[in-house]
Amino acid sequence: MHPEKIVFTYQGDGDLASIGAAEIIHAANRNENITVIFVNNAIYGMTGGQMAPTTLPNQVTTTTPLGREIITGAPIKMSEMIATMDHIAYVERCMAADGPSIMKTKRAIRKAFECQINQEGFSMVEVLSSCNIGWKMSPVDSLTYIKNTMTQTFPLGVFKERKHETNH
Amino acid sequence: MSKLLMKGNEAIARAAMLGGCEAFFGYPITPQNELIETMSHVMPANHRVFVQAESEVAAINMVYGAAGAGGRVMTSSSSVGIALKQEGISYCAGAELPCVIVSVSRSGPGLGGILPAQSDYHQSVYGGGNGDYRVIVLAPASVQEAVDDVGKAIQLAEKYRNPAMVLLDGAIAQMMASVVLPTQPLPRVDTTSWAATGDFKTRGTRNVINSLYLDPAKLYAHNQHLQAKYREIAKNEALLVDHHPDHHDGAIIAYGTSAKIAIGAAQRLKEEYGIKVKCIQLRTLWPFPKQALREAIKDMSFALVAEMSMGQLFQDVLAFTRSDTVIGYVGKAGGEIITSDDIVNGYLQQMGGEQIEHSV
Ligand SMILES: Cc1ncc(C[n+]2csc(CCOP(=O)(O)OP(=O)(O)O)c2C)c(N)n1
């Protein structure tokens, strides 16, 4: 509606990787000139800690009380999946686990918005984040869990960078 | 029969499993989360199917598949989630699949809020799916009634090969109460004549689950068959409870949580004002107990509808009773719970007045 305005979405993994999975894939495939901030905390936080598509193997949630088993699916890697689309602008996975990683996330988000401002098309930054209440951990342990455990399933890095060619 | 203390959501889940539910497909949404959370452990622990679907649309379509395969199947959700299921519910009704849908309503419209409301009366009773179809809607007012209604919904769904819904609000789902749970799985209706079980070779006939009829004559005949079934359900299953059979001065008509509060309000009208008002609790919303309601209020000059919605029930009571009895309305929505004061004051203010056409 307002092509001159900056547009972004802020989406959880329950949203982006589950009920909204079809929509995000098609928004990316249309190379919509928007920025997606994808907050992946491997759980449905707002509704009280149920399994998400990104929940790690063996992770205990309120709907996987014995730990997540493969019969419920494996953690979906949305950044890798979306990065298979050649024409989109930018996809990076970061984490919010300590000072340096948060600074790095900030730079990635800035870059994603720059892509949008430069009319390069779809950009997404996935941020591995904590949900210490849902995970039933202390805030400090949650940050360690992001660094040591989540990154094993969700490796950090840039998955797509189409380097400043204007799309339109 | 031992009594247990538990939350409405947990009690409903356990009652469904104990009643013989074989497969449950759900998706998180407040205020029904404890229902799917309980199902996530009691179903696998009893060798039944539990799937947390990727959306409510996926969950109801899993219900279609599993019910089509002859399973005893259930799903649950709340308001916005039930809205998403409407297409699938219409398909289940069209293909005549028995299934149970538990609807724990919150406030709306849209994302609304998570507090209790009864604003999904139209959604449940009239549905948002396409076509001339009907869903049996049971309306419990307590945790025990919710437990009993889950069993009843399973049986009605199978008896009539039709979706059956248990409609409650977040207050009942979140409330802890003592309950008696079923001890025996409910008897099964034979499904071999229609269920798609992959037994063509041994049976010799093909069972096809379908709601598509491109030939209008066949589809019209199918519709007539459905309507005949709905008339049968309407004749047999409509139910209300008169909580004060010896009160005849007037009535309060309500269902669910509003009915619970109305029982107390009727008591107060008698004790504080000497007016003997009966509380009529609607136990089924479809079929609507029209005949019994008309009968119950026929000699009264005034009856008040109390609901946690903006006149949805009031309009139906007005349309269905068509009598000289003046029908009043008192209600709230948006997560505000109706109080005994609201009902008592509403009754006193409106009795003796003219018929209103709209609630607001
Ligand atoms: C159609 C619909 N279904 C279900 C819900 C309930 N609901 C609210 S938030 C949420 C998901 C929360 O998970 P996520 O997107 O990962 O965000 P988080 O709370 O973890 O940040 C769900 C299922 C809803 N609001 N709408």
Structure characterization notes:
The complex is a heterodimer of chains A (168) and B (360). By secondary structure, chain A is an alpha/beta fold. Chain A is built from six helices and five strands; from the N terminus they run βααβαβαβααβ. Chain A has helices at residues 13-19, 21-29, 78-82, 99-117, 132-135, 139-153, and strands at residues 8-12, 35-40, 90-95, 123-128, 157-161. A five-stranded mixed sheet of chain A has the order 1-2-4-3-5. Chain B is built from 13 helices and 15 strands. In chain B, strands 2, 3, 4, 5, 6, 7, 8 and 13 form an eight-stranded mixed sheet that branches. The longest helix of chain B is centred in the middle third of the chain and has 22 residues, at 216-237. The model of chain B has no long low-confidence stretch (mean pLDDT 97). The A-B interface holds A 14, 18-19, 21, 44, 46-48, 50-51, 53, 62-66, 72 and B 27-30, 33, 36-37, 40-41, 51-52, 54-56. The complex binds thiamine diphosphate.
